[in-house]
Fold these 2 entries.
Entry 1:
Amino acid sequence: MSAPVKRSPKAAQTIEGGRFMVVGGASLVGSATCEELLAKGAAEVRLFDNFSFGSGEAIAHLKDDKRVTVVQGDILKLHQLLAATEGLDGLVHLAAFMTLSMDRDPWAGIDVNMRGVQNVLEACRANKVAKVVFASSNAVYGYGPGVKGDLVEETPFHSVGAPPAAILYGASKIVGEQLCRDAHRRHGQDYVILRYSTVYGERQHYRAANALYIVETHDAVKRGERPVVIGDGSETKHFVYVGDLARANRMALESDATDVAINTSGPEPVTTLELVTMVAEISGRPDLTAEKREPDPTKVRLTSGGAFRIDHAAAKDAIGWQPEVGMREGLARLLAWRDRAAG
Amino acid sequence: MSAPVKRSPKAAQTIEGGRFMVVGGASLVGSATCEELLAKGAAEVRLFDNFSFGSGEAIAHLKDDKRVTVVQGDILKLHQLLAATEGLDGLVHLAAFMTLSMDRDPWAGIDVNMRGVQNVLEACRANKVAKVVFASSNAVYGYGPGVKGDLVEETPFHSVGAPPAAILYGASKIVGEQLCRDAHRRHGQDYVILRYSTVYGERQHYRAANALYIVETHDAVKRGERPVVIGDGSETKHFVYVGDLARANRMALESDATDVAINTSGPEPVTTLELVTMVAEISGRPDLTAEKREPDPTKVRLTSGGAFRIDHAAAKDAIGWQPEVGMREGLARLLAWRDRAAG
């Protein structure tokens, strides 16, 4: 089916003693990736972020490590990226507008998700950064009734019935991926694209449309209220635990794989109703069952055509990765973190 | 299957006495659209072009008409569009990088095909231009083995096996379409998206990957050489005659349809081999049969998965349009124009 994965010795970066940058570093995935690289002995990890979405809180626990440098910068300013990428062995590019922010400001979202990728790739070319890991998304398979069954790397982009912001987001990730391919073709830039499914985990924020159910359900049951599900709760979501993604980023840097795009999803999908029920159970309130509500037509909703599963077999083949943390375990970690953070 | 077409009396523009602008006007489709609008009694037609691809030649025959104004401007400069769109009833937005130019300069291509659309829509909002016709492309169905059978408006975007520039082009048109939808949703901008199939006709240039076979075959047989076909010539192409598209643009302006995207393709698809043979026959050299050559891997090629046909039934339903000029007739007109132009 798929072509064999391209491999090149120069694509493989050793983490121990290496120098890396995470663009969009002050984020859920960014801070976890930084932890992972530090744990594996990286000599330096730079966290590049403009702090428009990222927060100092997300990386506060990392700042005491002498190997960590926080760079406040904007990926739309090429000169800032050029300065920040000097001497790097590898770069993980996470910074992006997601669907909700794309809906608020598509003008800026297109800039960040497309020109931003061009600037990052241009800086890596200029400074000979050997390996780029680009965070794409299962949004490249789109939304709406066409999205169902097993989503593999060859699945086309469906958009009928989806809101403009979701399609813009998915298309922007398709563009970002092709800019990586183009950089490989033009000047041999080694890269791995990871198509993240919906991320969740410690330091979960309120910006991701799909993960909102987790934090909103947790908030509700702690107030003693029933969690709310929009519709009948039967639609599929396929999450991936943030620590598993951090490991995927690190393994993509280490791997000799290049010029490839692979799915990184959790062990199994869940339905919204299963998710909400699980959160209530872990929170000790299994009695607070989900209340089903009609959709609000003014809000961005992400729909699919029914049961789907994001296949991650290719990731094992390409970079040796597979998810390790199941949904219940990952949720327990996330909720414990939220309880600790709330004091 | 499809939702019923949205209709609104204010979306319908009367051509007679109306004021219109064609962005990317100094082009194959632009000049034909200008002719069509003039023939139907438009009071004014502005041709906005930066002349980077467009040419003075393409519109030389129009300049003597007092109703025509040529505006040299750049869609990346919003203030130029703001000045040029004052007092308009409708606008046809054609300006874009196609696959070959996207391959040469993806940086500029993304600017023109995305930011350019945003600027055009912003200017139309500011100056209350009632109707926008946006030239999209069957590239929104993508390329590669997934593209086969009947391509209808709901067909997803396929990209496996396609070169980066082709995917960037297709994705840029998906983005442009969604920006129109977003403008409709946010501030009621009426628009019709026409998904052009491959255009051909009088004033054919060398910039469109798919139409190259026509002009290159014509050039070859006039030199007494056999035309060259890359591969076995069995892949499908679905052309549309430029005059049919000019009519579609005009009918989209006139129609009360809004917030809709429709295919505008010619009567029937052809294979590359049929096309090349037809051009040789019309040129009076049926003896010069096609010579099949192996593909050059360094060149951008647009492939599909086999026989496909771009369905245009929805266009009849939405704006009353269907193609009128068959491939042999259209080719005869194109080749006669080339022979006249060559003197």
Note: The mean pLDDT of chain A is 94.
Entry 2:
Amino acid sequence: MHTLIVHAHPGTRSFNATLTATARQTLEAGGHTVEISDLYADGFDPVEGPHHYPDRADEHRFAPLTEQRHASELGQLPGDVAREIDRLERADLVILQFPLWWHAQPAILKGWFDRVFVYGGLYTGSRRYDAGHFRGRRAMLSVTTGGPRRSFLPYGRGGPIERLLWPINYSLYYMGFDVLAPHLAYGVQGAGIAYREAQDFERHLAHVRHAWAERLRHIDDDRPIPFTGWDDWDDGVLAANHPQRWAS
Amino acid sequence: MHTLIVHAHPGTRSFNATLTATARQTLEAGGHTVEISDLYADGFDPVEGPHHYPDRADEHRFAPLTEQRHASELGQLPGDVAREIDRLERADLVILQFPLWWHAQPAILKGWFDRVFVYGGLYTGSRRYDAGHFRGRRAMLSVTTGGPRRSFLPYGRGGPIERLLWPINYSLYYMGFDVLAPHLAYGVQGAGIAYREAQDFERHLAHVRHAWAERLRHIDDDRPIPFTGWDDWDDGVLAANHPQRWAS
């Protein structure tokens, strides 16, 4: 198994950095190969816009999907986007490692979705969801949160974690991935904020690292989150007699 | 009433640009004042990271909240962040105008949340939600989607729009805003993709512009989305006997 870890945290000594290092060590120890896309270290530009498209399909009006399709057809995708796509094509499993900022992924990772999942090249109106480009591959989120676990329970103050991560997981499914349940590390904060002693920080970090390694050792057994797909929909809406309408 | 429109689209002739211009015209015609924060035009940097903090609280380990609090205490916030906060402080109503990209706001606007809503300065553990800094002010999303309306209905293929926008709306509420229901313009796509004739594009644009102006003329009558607040929670979780647990 070959794994791509897309890593999105600015701190080189952060919990997130440790989790990415733990994933690499654990997977390599299991005989797998690992590649890391470190968005901050690479200086990835998350802003989709005209500056990435010197040869425009429409000089008059900039529409991202129009330009993505055009650049893709001409083989003129931006270099960093082409590199990320190559990395994705090699991977059997994609892990997105990030801290939850404002109930979502950091901007640098949001822009990775905006720019790398190229319209025309990697998806079209008919080539998405369970007919998506990456079908047969697996993807999962590994997320740290500042708030404690109870805040993210169904009636928690922070909002149910499934609801917060749904737009991201659904985007991965949109591209055809089998999406595994996310791995969560709750109550992770800056060393100067939540931990009275340096050893409290280190103890929490050791606990989080252990839990993540355990999860990864058994990742082959994980079953993906079930989503509805093309056979379930009637003109874009779940068919009225579909059993899931009554189960949810 | 003074309104701040935070505008996040790279195309100067886009639907989004027209909607922002429509909002300005409509509100000014109603005797209100309007300010626009055009994130693309301003070259806003959405990436939170060490490069914004020359004078660090912790040189050893970069944690965004630690550095935000430190810079805020020293009065050394980055210039663009200080400018955005000044704009927010002047506004009675904040409108976020953006296209739905990958089930969320574009990266440039996601980074506006990551960087501008400064820990320490604008919120702390006790100064958030209905005790948040911007309580008494109103905020709302104005969103264009590529998919048609039926895709975003409760059983739609794109996922219920309320669920997609929830992380963003909840972030506004977290800062204390009274959040109005979003304004949606569905089925908006690049001129080269969805519209057979230029006049189809213009006709759709006229329809969308009209609906948005109508909404804004009556914006004073809008009631905010109800959220639970401090009095409803018991140690971070909605109290077991709270009526909303049984109503949802």
Note: Chain B has seven helices and eight strands.
